[in-house]
Amino acid sequence: MKIGFLGFGEVASTLAAGLLSNGVDVFTCVEGRSLKTKEIAEETALNLCKSNRELAESCDVLISAVTPFQAVEVSKKVGKYVKGIYIDINNISPSTAEEALSHIENGKTADASIIGSVRKNGLNAHILVSGPFSKQFAELNQYGMNISVIGSEIGRASAIKLFRSSFTKGISALLFETLYSAYKMGIDEETLKYIAETEGEGFMESAVSRIISSAVHSRRRAEEMEEVIELISKNSDAKMSKAAGEFFKQLCAEISGIYKRPEDYKEIFEIIDNKNRKN
Fold first, then answer.
1. What does the alpha-carbon distance between residue 14 and residue 204 come to, in Å, rounded to a whole number?
2. Mind listing the domains of the chain with CATH numbers?
3. Predicted confidence pLDDT, tens digits, the chain (279 residues)
4. What pTM does this model have?
5. How far apart are alpha carbons 252 and 189 in whole angstroms?
6. Which long-range contacts (CB under 8 A, 24 or more apart) does 102-108 make?
7. Rounded distance between C-alpha atoms, residue 178 and residue 52, angstroms
C-alpha cells in the first residue's frame, strides 16, 4: 500500500509517521516548500517525490492536506495524474469539496474530516469520510487509522466538520478574548480556576491548549472560518461565525512571527503586548 500526502504540515506529518510505523509506504513532495517542512519530511524518513505529478502517479491513496485556500488549486494541478483514490481532508465547505474533487479525472474520490486533535491523538484521530470511494479509504483502518464512513454523498463529512468548527473556533475566540482581558488585570489564573469549577474536569488543560493553538494556527483558523461562514450563511446570517472569523484575522496580524509552539499561553499574550507597545 502506497499512501501519498499533498502538503506536509502537522496533519500530514503526524499521520505519515503513524502509517510508517505500521508498515505502509508513505510518499510526499516538498519541492518549493519551507525549510522547516523539508526538515520534518527528512526526519520522518518517508519517500520523497520530485514533483506532485510523480506523487499522484505513484500512490494507491493520495490525501490532500493543504490549506483551505489551496484545496481547489492543488486538485486542479494533479487531477489528470491521479491513479488511485483521492481524498480531500482539508477543512472546507461541501461546495468547495465538490469543486476540488470534480477536477480528479478518474472519479475515485471522497472528502474526509478530522474530528479532534491530530497532535494529541496521532494516527488514532477520528476521521469522518463521505463520497463514492469512502469504503475503500476506510480500509486504511487495518493500518491503525480510525476512519468512519458516514455516507456515499460528497460533502457530508465536510459539513459535519465545519459545523463542529463553528462551535469550537467560536468558543476558542471567546476564551482567548476573555482570558487576555483577565491577564491584563492580573487575574487570568484565578479566572481559569473559577471557570473550571463550572466547566468540569479537564477544562484547564483544554483551555490552555485552545489558546495556544488559536495563536499558532490563527491564519489557518481564519481560512477555516471563511468556509464555515459560506456554509452557515445558506441557512442564517452567521453573525457569530463572522465575528470569530474577524477575530482570527486580527489575531494572525497581532502574533505574526511566532514559529514555535509556546508551552505557556502567557508567552502569546506577551507577544501581543510587545507589539502593541511598539505601535
1. 25
2. 2-152 (3.40.50.720), 159-278 (1.10.1040.10)
3. 999 999 988 899 999 999 999 999 999 998 877 778 788 888 887 899 999 999 999 999 999 999 889 999 999 999 999 999 999 999 899 999 999 999 999 999 999 999 988 988 999 999 999 999 999 999 999 999 999 999 999 999 999 999 999 999 999 999 999 999 999 999 999 999 999 999 988 999 999 999 999 999 999 899 999 999 999 999 999 999 999 999 999 999 988 767 678 889 999 999 899 888 776
4. 0.83
5. 24
6. 103/72, 103/75, 103/76, 103/79, 104/75, 104/79, 105/79, 105/80, 106/82, 107/132, 108/82, 108/84, 108/132, 108/133, 108/136
7. 43
Residue 11, C-alpha cell as written in the block: 496533519
The three cell numbers of residue 205 are 488543560
Q: From CA 175, how far away is CA 255, in angstroms rounded?
A: 17
3-state secondary structure of 125: coil
Confirm if 207 and 192 have CB atoms less than 8 A apart: yes
Burial class (CB in 10 A: 0-12, 13-18, 19+), 273: middle
Q: CA-to-CA distance for 208 and 215, rounded, in angstroms?
A: 11
Q: What is the chain's percent helix, strand, coil content, to nearest 5?
A: 60, 15, 30
DSSP state letters, 30-44: -TT--HHHHHHHHHH
